[in-house]
């Protein structure tokens, strides 16, 4: 049965019927002469049976074809779950097997495709850069998680035009240029999101595998705000250092040249030597402060287990003793105000240096005859505050914001005259950070300033 087609079986049945009819007529004729009506009846019966067999076979054939067609349609729609049971006739079996083989193959391909897709998506998600793929109409084909943090794109934005979702003219201009360009495009652009960010965008064309036409663009986005800021800080820093060193060195050179002249009187020689000495001291202070800053920047945060327990009152008393000449030269009194016997755990050298810088600033910049207060108190949330308060001229808000930057000075001339390097507060900030703390200032013009170091209680 499995080896034969439906046509073969129906043909065979018809043939057998014809043979039976023939045999019947021969046997009937051997007994007595056959009536014409009998022959006609046998032929009519034969024709009727043949027609019935052909009808049944055709019905079966179409029914099987309908089943095969419906299943083929189901496969075509992508529903590859079912398979066709072979109907038992060779032609239909062959067709069913071919369709089942095709479904198996499609199922394997689809599975592979889904696996590839998941792999690609996982790859895209694991990349820290934002990735967007757009078609030639700038409709979003795909984007990764990083893009939502850089641009705020959401998965449901897929299929929408980039211009409908984003109001970022530089990015949209980049995409337009990228789609028109044969090669990769690389450009730094600015976006307005998150207070304005600097983004490095790279566009790579998507090429149609058949026609070779450019059909879209993959855009890689990297937030380079911090890197660019660091780069510009590094450039600014280099030019600041050169500028700061240039002034005292020019002065040393000038006075050294004068010293080389013949016939100078003793007093001029002495004056020249003093200026040279003072300026080399400035250079040496700048270099020492720069070295200290670089050490602090490269040092890891202090290990809490290796910190010294320090009495704040003792630190303040030592500072007052160390700077008593400067204080008396400017007629400034110092008050120490400490919460009981408050102790801190800190690196003693660093913390004395930070407080020393703040105390020296207060002595230098405060108005003569006023009082500087050194305070230490415990704050809620396990924090300790060390404060240096003066009754000086105060600092305006615009300067306060930048005061802890390197080489930032409110009054450059006054700072120089006082032997300042412009690095003292930058060092204070780094020492505070080094102790997992922070440094800050609050000030009112005409009233004075309060510099604070906040340390975690350990
Ligand atoms: P400098 O070596 O110039 O003192 P700092 O980094 O210590 O450098 O201070 C930066 C600037 O901050 C100073 O030049 C000064 O203009 C201002 N400043 C610092 N402390 C005070 C203060 N107590 N009162 C007023 N201005 C201050």
List keywords for this structure.
rod-shaped; Beta-Lactamase; five-stranded mixed beta sheet; 14 helices; Helix Hairpins; 458 residues; 12 strands; alpha+beta; 18% strand; binds adenosine-5'-diphosphate; 4 domains
Fill in the CATH topology of the largest domain. Heat Shock Protein 90
How many individual helices? Answer: 14
Largest sheet: 5 strands, antiparallel
Basic shape: rod-shaped
CATH domain class of the largest domain: Alpha Beta
Give the termini separation: 91 Å
- Runs in which pLDDT lies below 50 for 5 or more consecutive residues are none
Query: Any idea how many domains?
Result: 4
The helix-and-strand class reads alpha+beta
Structure description:
It is a single chain. Helices cover 55% and strands 18% of the residues. It is of the alpha+beta class and 458 residues long. A hairpin with a 3-residue loop joins β11 and β12. α8 packs parallel to α14. It folds into four domains: 102 residues, no CATH class; 97 residues, PAS domain (Beta-Lactamase, 2-Layer Sandwich); 71 residues, Helix Hairpins (Orthogonal Bundle); 158 residues, Histidine kinase-like ATPase, C-terminal domain (Heat Shock Protein 90). The model has no long low-confidence stretch (mean pLDDT 91). Bound molecules: adenosine-5'-diphosphate (ADP).
